[in-house]
Design goal:
Blueprint (H helix, E strand, L loop, with lengths): L1 H25 L24 H4 L4 E7 L2 E5 L6 H8 L7 E7 L2 H5 L3 H7 L1 E12 H4 L4 E2 L10 E10 L4 E8 L5 E6 L3 H8 L7 E4 L5 E3 L3 E12 L2 H8 L7 E4 L5 E4 L4 E5 L4 E5 L12 H14 L6 E8 L7 E9 L2 E4 L8 E7 L2 E8 L1 E15 L2 H10 L6 E12 L3 E12 L4 E3 L1
Parallel strand pairs: 3-5, 18-22
Antiparallel strand pairs: 1-2, 1-4, 2-9, 3-8, 4-6, 6-7, 7-8, 9-10, 11-21, 11-23, 12-13, 13-14, 14-15, 15-20, 16-17, 17-18, 17-19, 19-20, 22-23, 23-24
């Protein structure tokens, strides 16, 4: 009896094994797709932004003819004139049929003479902008994709009194590459918009192609309270699973948070954070300067947002092997906030490799909307300002002069001190 029972159990086991082998070999199990783990939008209180909110001319120069000029900026007390020229006029006009000027064409054009003797509008960007990004804020038609990666830093439109037609030129970050364009403007429209400049402070051009006001500039000095992003807020915002994040203490007092792949460093003495997320595989998305700009904006939207007004300041790639480097600059009223090397309060900095953000840096400080104190003052203009420029240790390397806030950080507040700032040839800033 026992032998028969053993034989029966063995037969059942063999049969079950054969059935399982068949199912594994020929069965078609129903597979449920697993959604990839991804970041969720941050809850740090910052606003969301699009490219058009962060990319626009930082200066519009109105050339009035007879060697007269003035300057419009997006956040100045005269910003209504900026909006009239840029939004109500330039953004509603079309540029098309861009053609590269030959060396012979370039040698025949004296830009200083054109700007001093003709009525015109000069659009200036803080950084050269990829054509594909520029086409998102201005109506520019190009033939094919040959100009997609052209980087435009200035556009000059002037009323050619000889032909009776406006002429438009696109200047790139390469001095020998300039494009002429056709436009649907007429000469009377250009003159009408230039005429706004007669009511504004006159500016004088200087040899490095920057403009200085002939009168003092009214500004306001503020004292502003602030809050700081906390470690817990940042962990929830920057890591896929904050529950597995470990904390390390550095000798210099900074805190390191890591999930074994990504890293977050909080430098509390500098009020600064550095987040790194190395690329571990080949690119799967769009690449190029314009695509990287979109990626960077979306990354910030998801990880803290924009807690103030920002403008794109830098979009830099030294070579194909190097990462794209982007900087967005914070503005208060109509002035950018410039920090030093240790506490660059006004900057958000990113690096991208293969279309992915690999490094993200910004201040831990969030300025309050309301100031606790304000003091109206003036920055010098005219001869007094020119003497400051000439006496600067950077005099030979200055490419731009503009008013900005120097930030002085204390335990509970930040003093925003208006000063004349200079941009140098290497892209760095200093104060006069």
């Amino acid at each position: 009896m026992k032998e028969r029972l053993k034989t029966l159990v063995l037969a059942i086991l063999v049969t079950a094994s054969l059935v399982q082998s068949y199912v594994l070999a020929y069965g078609r199990p129903k597979l449920d797709l697993l959604a990839p783990t991804n970041y969720v939008p941050s809850e740090l209180g910052g606003t969301q932004a699009e490219l058009k909110d962060l990319l626009y001319p930082y200066q519009i120069v109105l050339h009035l003819g007879e060697r007269k000029h003035t300057l419009l900026t997006p956040f100045s007390p005269q910003q209504q004139f900026y909006k009239m020229v840029y939004r109500d006029f330039l953004q509603k006009r079309r540029f098309e049929s861009l053609r590269k000027l030959t060396p012979e064409n370039l040698s025949d054009l004296n830009w200083n003479t054109i700007k001093n003797e003709n009525e015109g509008i000069e659009i200036r960007f803080r950084e050269a902008v990829p054509m594909k990004a520029l086409q998102r804020i201005l109506d520019i038609k190009t033939d094919g994709d040959s100009l997609d990666e052209a980087r435009i830093d200035r556009i000059l439109i002037y009323a050619n009194t000889g032909s009776g037609e406006p002429e438009a030129y696109f200047f790139t970050d390469q001095a020998t590459t300039v494009y002429a364009a056709r436009t649907d403007m007429d000469i009377s429209e250009v003159r009408k918009n230039v005429a706004f400049g007669q009511y504004l402070t006159p500016y004088e051009p200087h040899y490095s192609d920057y403009y200085l006001p002939e009168k003092s500039v009214p500004v306001v000095r503020y004292t502003v309270g602030y809050e700081q992003f906390t470690a817990d807020e940042l962990k929830r915002s920057l890591f896929v699973d904050p529950n597995i994040v470990k904390n390390l203490q550095e000798k210099d007092g900074s805190q390191i948070y890591t999930d074994a792949k990504r890293g977050l460093q909080l430098q509390n003495e500098r009020h600064w954070l550095i987040f790194t997320d190395p690329v571990t595989g080949p690119s799967t998305g769009r690449t190029g300067s314009a695509a990287d700009l979109d990626t960077a904006i979306q990354f910030i939207n998801q990880h803290g947002g924009w807690n103030s007004t920002f403008l794109m300041e830098r979009l830099f790639r030294s070579s194909e092997e190097e990462p794209n480097q982007l900087v967005f600059r914070q503005y208060r009223d109509f002035l950018p906030i410039l920090g030093g090397a240790e506490e660059d309060l006004g900057a958000i900095k990113l690096q991208l490799v293969q279309g992915a953000v690999t490094s993200f840096e910004r201040s831990l400080i969030k300025l309050n909307g309301e100031a606790t104190a304000r003091h109206e003052m003036e920055l010098p203009g005219g001869e007094a300002l020119w003497k400051l420029v000439q006496s600067s240790k950077h005099a030979g390397d200055i490419v731009d002069v503009f008013p900005a806030y120097s930030a002085k950080i204390s335990d509970k507040s930040v003093e925003l001190i208006p000063r004349w700032a200079v941009e140098l040839r290497d892209g760095t800033y200093d104060f006069l």
